[in-house]
Specification:
The chain is about 40% helix and about 20% strand. With about 450 residues, it is α+β, with helices and mostly antiparallel strands. The protein starts with a helix and ends in a 14-residue tail after the last helix.
Length: about 450
């Protein structure tokens, strides 16, 4: 996985693989403890001190012990347009490229807004991190900062392994019979896979892929989400399997295709020793569904269940190796193999407590999307939060909003009657149906043309 990001960086830079974050701190900040905590994290996780160098046409990792952490600072207390300046600062920090040949792969800036009011801007490169790693970073920071403020030493247990150990294990294990067995499954499963989805686009796809993201959020209320969970229990499936089944149906309806390909991220941390590591472990599974209108939804759901379980069994093939094996026609305009992602996040949200400080999360300064559409489902106390991230160079906001409403309608339908025929599932809401009928009534007074449809 690191090899792919290094290649992309060599080809055209990789700012779209920056992982920026931000949070507010209100209260008394101990700057020495703050800096020491971050230095300790960088020293603790070798992957943050790893450089990527070319050697005879290949890439090698060099783990540096001489990386000095420099806390960047900005004081905005005297700024007249503080909010505007902070937004620009956040944006510039988010898009600032990493030099993979020499940079520390964690950057932090402390912005002072007022006395006892701060914003922390941080950024990691995806080559050294993933979503799970963000939680590790924040939890370790909170633990270390709290200890250092009290004058204590680090309470964190030494790491049993480092990311390089995982990388070496992966290369040594994925060889010979094991590698061939895993690859054979994917070769069969993804034979003659569609090159690209057939969803209608609002705009002409650019010749060079862009990453200009935009988001649309919506909620499945607790009543419906509770009924969906009960449906999952009755059918013996996970929430991911149910959401994938309905999402594939939605994509089939919009595209007019029965062969639907959707990617799904998987944590890739199959061993307990790698759970506390910062690193790039996440892998992408390719889930291929055949949507058949002549099936009952419950039958479709069980087929998706078996496909997902098989994908989990063969999850260890890195997506990059899979692309290499399938060797699809390459294009600079879109991702190979898949362009649509679905995730049901199952890692716990990180709750941070700091002495004499209140921490609040902040929205990202830059919205970037790696795929055409990414649907993220998160279980929360009051239901399911659905976040649609999409490329705004391809889709208009109202199109994605309509996607979401139609998905919601399908969820209601399958919950009410899971054995319904797939072709009978209606994704139109009552309001949309009435609107269409009204349009029809408005036009009944017009005389019919003499020509046939094909002549018109």
């Amino acid at each position: 996985a690191q090899q792919r990001l290094w290649f992309i960086d060599q080809m055209n830079g990789s700012v779209e693989y920056n992982m920026p974050g931000a949070f507010r701190l209100n209260g008394v900040l101990n700057k020495l403890a703050f800096t020491h905590a971050i230095e300790t994290i960088i020293k603790r996780h070798e992957v943050l001190r790893t450089c990527f160098l070319s050697l005879e046409g290949d890439v090698v990792l060099v783990i540096r012990d001489d990386v000095a952490f420099n806390l960047e600072e900005a004081d905005l207390r005297t700024q007249a347009e503080q909010t505007k300046v902070l937004e620009e600062l956040s944006y510039q920090q988010a898009i600032k490229p990493f030099d993979l040949t020499q940079d520390c792969l964690l950057r932090v800036m402390l912005v002072t807004l007022e006395t006892n009011e701060y914003v922390v801007l941080f950024n990691m490169h995806h080559i050294a991190s993933d979503g799970w790693s963000m939680g590790v970073l924040l939890r370790e920071f909170a633990t270390l900062y709290s200890s250092f403020v009290s004058g204590e030493s680090s309470p964190l247990a030494p790491l049993a392994v480092q990311y390089k150990d995982y990388a070496r294990w992966q290369r040594e294990w994925l060889q010979g019979k094991e590698l061939e067995q895993q690859l054979n499954y994917w070769r069969t499963q993804l034979s003659d896979i569609p090159q690209i989805h057939s969803l209608p686009l609002d705009k002409v796809r650019p010749a060079q892929q862009t990453f200009n993201g935009k988001s649309h959020n919506m909620m499945v209320d607790s009543t419906l989400s509770g009924k969906l969970q009960q449906l999952c229990q009755r059918e013996g499936v996970t929430l991911f399997m149910l959401m994938h089944s309905v999402f594939a149906l939605l994509l089939s309806r919009y595209s007019g295709e029965q062969d639907i390909v959707v990617g799904s991220p998987i944590a890739g941390r199959a061993h307990q020793d790698v759970e506390p590591l910062i690193g790039f472990f996440v892998n992408t599974l390719v889930i291929r569904s055949k949507v058949n209108g002549g099936q009952r939804f419950s039958e479709h759901l069980q087929m998706v269940k078996q496909t997902v379980l098989s994908a989990y069994q063969y999850q260890h093939i890195p997506f990059e190796m899979l692309v290499e094996q399938l060797n699809p026609e390459r294009s600079m305009a879109y991702n190979p193999v898949l362009q649509i992602m679905l995730s049901v996040d199952n890692y716990e949200s990180t709750s941070i407590s700091l002495p004499e400080l209140e921490l609040q999360g902040m929205p990202a300064a830059v919205e970037q999307v790696k795929f055409d559409i990414e649907l993220s489902v998160m279980e929360v106390n009051d239901g399911l939060r659905l976040n649609w991230s999409y490329n705004q160079d391809l889709f208009m906001p109202q199109t994605i909003e309509r996607f979401g409403l139609h998905l919601m309608q399908l969820l209601k339908e399958v919950e009410a009657e899971p054995t319904i025929m797939m072709s009978s599932l209606d994704m139109l809401s009552k309001q949309e149906r009435e609107h269409l009928l009204q349009l029809g009534e408005m036009n009944t007074s017009k005389p019919l043309p003499d020509e046939c449809i094909h002549q018109l």
